[in-house]
Design brief:
Helix content is 23%, strand content 33%. The chain contains 6 helices and 13 strands. The strands form 2 sheets. Strands 3-4-2-1-9-12-11 form a 7-stranded mixed sheet. A 6-stranded antiparallel sheet has the order 5-8-13-10-6-7. A hairpin with a 2-residue loop joins strand 3 and strand 4.
Amino acid sequence: MKIGKSIILLLCMGLLGLTACGEVIQPEENKEVTDELAASSASSLTVEKDGSIAHTIVEDFSGSEFYSEERLKSMIDSSIDEYTSGHPSAQIKLKNLKVKDGVANVSMEYGDYQAYAGFNSEDFFVGTVKDANMAGYDLNVTLRSVSDNTEISKPDLLGMGDSHIILAIVEAAGETQADQIRINCFDEILYVSDGITAAGKKSADVSLANGYRIIVFK
């Protein structure tokens, strides 16, 4: 999981003369950042109830004077066309792309987790605990409750077969300096693995350091 590896690579490669990628712009460095941009200053992944994935990527490219929003959009569109030509059932859409004060804000939509995982070359799963176990994922883990910090292990987890699970194998990449991504679930989060901090009833911040990341929710 690398905050959308393919898109990050396009963002980095599509900028001629780029000297830095992934730096979060600070208000004191640019006084003209709008309230709208400041409100969406972190990358996020949202799992919808219908199985679709909404993905927002925020990257700072203020160091490049050669930035072209049109060129970046064309590169992302081409990448989507290339992937879907080999995977006709994959639903992938560039919903929005804008640049403000040197910060690129990209919104992507995927029809399901398979399209997200395939397009971004990531090991990422969304489904029930029972489905994850049948798919062969290693559930021999210790998770902690977000409500009282108690721990559960594999037998307890397997007993929650119909609960939902988000599972990702994180490989820290050099393409971005971001150290975490926010994941939003469509229902209340119950348990999380190491490297994850609850950020509300349905949201959690996931560390992008190497590791196995699991969120269990209703």
